[in-house]
Design a protein that fits this description.
4 strands; Ribosomal Protein S5, domain 2; 130 residues; 2 helices; alpha+beta; 4-stranded mixed sheet
C-alpha cells in the first residue's frame, strides 16, 4: 500500500474516507498481512492537519473508535484517510473537546453505519470484499 490507497473509497464522510482490501490474498508467513484478521492503517496528511497535536488527536480518535467497533469490522485491511481539514474558524484550538467529539461522531458513522451498509450491499450483490 505504498503511496495512495488503491481503488476508490468504500465509504466517505465530510472529513474521512475508508478504503479496504482483502488480507487473505496477501497473508502468510512472509506476506503483507501475517495472521490475517483486521488491519487498520491511518493516513493523516500534513496538508489537512498541519499541527502534530491535531494529527495525534485524530489518530487517537480513529484507533479508539476502531477498538469500540472491533467486533463489527471485517477481517480486511482498512485504511482510514483524512480527506479534508477541519475548519480552523470552527475548531480554533489544535486539539479540543469539540474537535474530538466531531471527529469521533464522524468516525463512528464511517466505521459503523456506512461500512455496515457497504458490506450489506456487497453481500446482496455477491461481490467479493473490496
Amino acid at each position: 500500500m505504498a503511496g495512495r490507497p488503491s481503488g476508490p473509497p468504500v465509504a466517505k464522510t465530510q472529513h474521512f474516507a475508508l478504503h479496504m482490501t482483502d488480507t487473505s490474498a496477501h497473508s502468510g508467513a512472509h506476506g503483507l498481512f501475517p495472521g490475517g484478521g483486521t488491519w487498520l492503517v491511518v493516513l493523516i496528511p500534513k496538508r489537512w492537519a498541519r499541527r502534530a497535536v491535531t494529527r495525534n488527536t485524530l489518530r487517537r480518535q480513529i484507533y479508539a473508535v476502531a477498538r469500540e467497533l472491533a467486533h463489527t469490522l471485517p477481517p480486511q485491511a482498512l485504511v482510514v484517510r483524512l480527506r479534508s481539514g477541519f475548519a480552523r474558524d470552527q475548531f480554533i484550538s489544535a486539539t479540543s473537546d469539540a474537535l474530538r467529539s466531531a471527529a469521533r461522531a464522524e468516525l463512528q458513522e464511517l466505521l459503523g453505519d456506512r461500512l455496515a451498509r457497504r458490506l450489506r450491499q456487497q453481500a446482496v450483490a455477491g461481490e467479493p470484499h473490496a
